[in-house]
## 1
Amino acid sequence: MNENELTLAEAARNVQNFAATSLRRKIAQLEAEFISNENFSVETLCTNSNIDLTLLASALMMKRAAGQINEVVHAVGILLLLTHILEDGEIIESLSLGAGNTGRNFDLETNLRVAEFKFIDWRGGAEAIRQNTFFKDFYLLAESDTTKQRYLYVIGDRYPLKFLHGKRALKSVMSKDSGLAARFLALYGEQFAKVHEYYTYRKDRVQIIDVTAFIPDFANIFDSSEKTNR
């Protein structure tokens, strides 16, 4: 069995059947069942649990599709918000709907504003990678050479603001992005050591906006998605 013989719907169904109501519980169950078994028993257990090449091919197909789903979330999220955030007479000059580095400076640029959109359902735990990318967007907006209004749109502002007011070391935040670290060092040297120090200095430049104020259902949709993925 290979991916060419599967449809995305079939792959999703196979993975869903394997995970049942909770992938975490399923994994724990399998770990318990396979302990102390010999080769013959292991083969039987795999057969009884439908663990085969079809399931593996299905999982790989879903994994590759997940990257495209991120693009869909980013694009659809932005497009749904445009009618809520654009002012009368505001003209879109540049639009970057693909998630990640698309070669454009910002997700949205109009004659009045520049903006980035972070469709992240923050959970308040250890979220270093999310914090790192969020800080980069804030920094690029804050230091942009523009007279336009600067906006950073988020799903709920509690945890993003908590991070920006926090004491995480800037070296840690930028440790995985040497380009950003070099730019920051060239501009500020050792002037700032913690996130909150830089945020206090630049907070008036960037407006951080909770998009659920425009579309309340965003909160439910992203929260439901996060629970489903647990």
## 2
Amino acid sequence: MKILLFALNASFAHQALGALTLASYINSRITGAAEVLERSINDRDDEVFYELYENAKNKKLIGFSCYIWNIEKMLKFAEDLKKLRPDLYIAFGGPEVSFYDDDDFLGLYPFVDFLIKGEGEEKLLALWHNL
């Protein structure tokens, strides 16, 4: 089972260090288990979603890297992806979701299965092992 870490960057020059670090950590423990998909908020939403959907085909878990500049789009992408792939586990992490109460966030957004707060390396790896 592979994990896809999805980052929607603020610009083409920006890289998702959080997603890249998480993938590196997971791959250092389970070779080839994690992949990263990076796009920009400047890209067309339909193109981003299509690429996300295509990359999710052989995955069981997708982690969304959430920031103030991408949270609305991430919520929409996750909701639409869950409609097409209800078997897919969706985890949200990053600074924009770290202050939420788990039950409150998951109640508001039932298409999100897990909320990862703080440092995600061990938490995401444990989640992967438990699926």
## 3
Amino acid sequence: MTPSVTSNILEGVTRSTLLSLFPEALGLAVEQRQIDRTELYTADEAFFTGTAAEVTPILSIDRRPVGDGTMGPLTAKVRDAYFRAVRDGSAPHPEWRRPVWV
């Protein structure tokens, strides 16, 4: 699940990419809604997304470990699907990638 864009979050390109990749590459549905703080405390996994962060696991929230305090298997799958899409081109949507000639 992820906060909706009405929750004062940035409607970013990385987030949009992952919202497409979840059902397409991972076969998972994404629920967009308000997330209560207590849900974060009991989450098995959590991660940040962003241009610089890409897909970065959140290992603790308010000094409480998320899951077992390490990157979880879903976060690893999400990160790998994202890297395939934007780095090696083995995922769908080649239109997302453009060569940059310097």
## 4
Amino acid sequence: MRPREVTRTDRRWLLTVTLVFGVTIGSLLAAREVYRATGPHPHIAAFIRRVQSHANGLLRFRRFRRR
């Protein structure tokens, strides 16, 4: 490949990745705002607390195993 073709291909990939990243971040922020605007969600809050508890348990278990 020629250097110009490589540069052009690299620019396309960079723009594509940047666009996908921006759209992903934007959609996550929009989803968060919709979540906040639609009121309290006790089932989702309980699920998140449960997942956090499991994650903390796994991290503590791993820390004790490493020693």
